């Protein structure tokens, strides 16, 4: 083994280091289909056993790789595996991992246009492509973020900017089903939490437009200043997509900023069915998209797309004497002016390389497969006795519960039963499902969004559900 304790690795060292890491990665990937979908036992003891003092000198690589791959990794949700149908699955495309290796090795600064105009252009291309996917017009722009939460935050800051410096009387409207990061974004942006209205939803968990209009009118009458609508394009609870055309019309009539939280659902706009479900998405002022969900990329890849990049810039730009002059050519962009971040990773390459290598059609086909799989699973569940499909898939997420007649109508007993059902399904280790509460009731969720999930694993999951039901009697 070469000596990796020098700061400057020579070429042979680097090759050996990457090769050793790659060996471990390949081993991990080979074992993935057979891994339990979720392992949590012994987590606290494991974490404690991994505590260690600051290392004063270098340790041998094999030992360190063993710590990562043999000790730390095994106790985890297998987020990259085919059985991960929990929460909103992430991805982990390997093309992106290689892009990260390149990005980190070249380590150019992409916050400032003039520091690497060509590399910044690659990231700008990615932004333009994402705008095209969601149907925003030419001239739109945006910024890559660490995820949907930060994108929702910057969108809120941009919307707030319209109110001027005194915005304490500003109000924001979303539904009871909105992701919690919407409320957090509003609080962090300085809005009183009580001025974020959680408007009720209809039977399909979509925001009720009449209630929304009433809330806006009521606030205006009370002297408050309505500022922003936040629509959901794929809620985390049930995958519900709000009436985006209806919300766009309302936002226009009321002069409000329309933000669409499409962190989960937005990438389905690559598919024909997705575009139909997401009709109106391109009319938004801003859109949150999570490529680490819908484009199967590694965690840490979100995007905020905006119709008017100048508005995003006005809301985030602060002058500093020690920085070079910012770009004024509308063809170019300094990303550090569009978000709270100054220094950051070259995350654009993590999208650019996979999109160029695979092509958008490859992603569209994979997303189409996820829509098919969710529809298929919904059909099978519908046919299972005493299984209630609480929310059929609008995209690739569905919600169900088991309501055995023997429990009568007792809600507490039913909730308890479904909680045990979830544990019995997950114990089998082939799929990992999670739960939520709808109108206070415990329900099970299936979200198909891993590029590694195919029909065989969905079938295994459905078998596990019916066997778990049988097991509970
Ligand atoms: C995942 C998600 C978020 C938060 O995104 P992060 O990338 O986890 O920060 C926000 N909204 C919705 C609808 C989501 O699914």
Quick rundown:
This protein is of the alpha/beta class and 473 residues long. It has helices spanning 11-31, 43-49, 61-72, 94-106, 117-134, 148-161, 180-188, 209-221, 244-254, 272-277, 291-294, 309-316, 348-358, 360-382, 411-427, 455-472; strands at 141-145, 170-175, 196-199, 225-232, 257-262, 286-289, 302-306, 387-391, 397-402, 434-438, 441-447.
Output the keywords.
473 residues; alpha/beta; Aspartate Aminotransferase, domain 2; Aspartate Aminotransferase, domain 1; 4-stranded antiparallel sheet; 11 strands; binds pyridoxal-5'-phosphate
Task: Explain how this protein is built.
- By secondary structure, the chain is of the alpha/beta class.
- It folds into 2 domains: about 110-360, Type I PLP-dependent aspartate aminotransferase-like (Major domain) (Aspartate Aminotransferase, domain 2), CATH 3.40.640.10; about 360-470, Aspartate Aminotransferase, domain 1 (Alpha-Beta Complex), CATH 3.90.1150.170.
- Helices cover about 45% and strands about 15% of the residues.
- The strands form 2 sheets. It has a 7-stranded mixed sheet, sandwiched between helices.
- Helix 10 (about 270-275) links the parallel strand 5 and strand 6.
- Helix 4 packs across helix 13 (about 350-360) and helix 14 (about 360-380) runs parallel beside helix 16.
- It is globular, with a radius of gyration of 24 Å.
- About 45% of the residues are buried.
- Bound molecules: pyridoxal-5'-phosphate (PLP).
- The site of pyridoxal-5'-phosphate has 13 residues, from helix 6.
- Pyridoxal-5'-phosphate binds near residues 147, 149, 179 and 181.
